[in-house]
Design brief:
alpha/beta, Rossmann fold, 5 strands, about 50% helix
């Protein structure tokens, strides 16, 4: 169990804000919550790993790849830009799923919201989209940020959009009920609730709640909607996302 927690926290490309002492305390608390024993050395190692993954420029290589691709084939017109973490990046059927809209996928790595904010000019602004679909935050919470800290990072993203693209509508896909992250259910639902509340106060912000649509009638998680890791969704999972996202985009575009 000890090694599995270290692997979980490090291999999912996660990070955490704050000084190392606070991070170590959060790791210890999470281990206790999961009834997992961790030595002081393991806690320090995990904190160091998380601190490294959280560096703002950690995904610079992925961003450079986007820029290189743009040099030979820059998307001149973008109706909807999709950005965020790996669940956006792995959405291979996105172009087909969102027809007739012209969409652009700029999801990358196991991004945190802070990574998206840091690369805002290169993954959002330069494409001048008519709307944005955003999915991020689950990695932040897994990396032991609180829901409130994660939402505050999203508020920074929203401010960046409002400053540079003031009339753009933002659609936020809520965190999904991944079987691999059952232990974070309370935190993930708290994040979703805060984003929903934020959207209720902003006519240019829509919260797309996917949580219940990915549960059984009894409220259980559905492993069959996910790939083997229990974290990322498969084609059946993306069918649910497609339906809900298109329903929301239909309020802005003719579909």
């Amino acid at each position: 169990m000890k090694n599995s927690l270290i692997i979980l926290l490090t291999l999912t490309c996660l990070g955490c804000s704050g000084d190392m002492k606070i991070l170590e305390e959060r790791i210890k608390a999470q281990a206790e919550k999961n009834n997992t024993e961790m030595s002081a050395v393991d806690i320090k190692k995990t904190a160091l790993y998380l601190n490294t993954w959280s560096k703002e420029d950690f995904y610079q290589e992925a961003i450079d790849k986007f820029l290189t691709d743009d040099e030979s084939n820059f998307p001149e017109e973008v109706d909807v830009l999709f950005t965020g973490s790996s669940s956006i990046r792995f959405w291979e059927s996105l172009d087909q799923d969102m027809k007739p809209l012209k969409v652009l996928n700029r999801g990358f790595g196991g991004a945190h919201i802070t990574h998206v904010n840091y690369h805002f000019e290169d993954v959002v602004l330069r494409y001048n989209p008519k709307a944005i679909v955003f999915f991020c935050g689950t990695n932040d919470i897994t990396a032991l940020k609180t829901p409130e800290e994660t939402v505050n990072d999203f508020k920074i993203f929203k401010q960046k959009v409002r400053k540079s693209l003031p009339d753009i509508h933002i659609f936020v896909i809520g965190i999904k009920p991944s079987p691999a992250r059952l232990y974070l259910e309370n935190e993930e639902l708290a994040y979703n609730k805060l984003i929903a509340e934020l959207s209720s106060e902003d006519d240019l912000l829509t919260f797309i709640d996917i949580w219940d649509a990915m549960l059984t009638e009894e409220g259980k998680r559905i492993p069959e909607l996910f790939v083997e890791d229990g974290l990322h969704i498969n084609a059946d999972g993306y069918k649910i996302w497609t339906r809900l996202v298109r329903d929301s985009l239909g309020n802005l575009f003719t579909l």
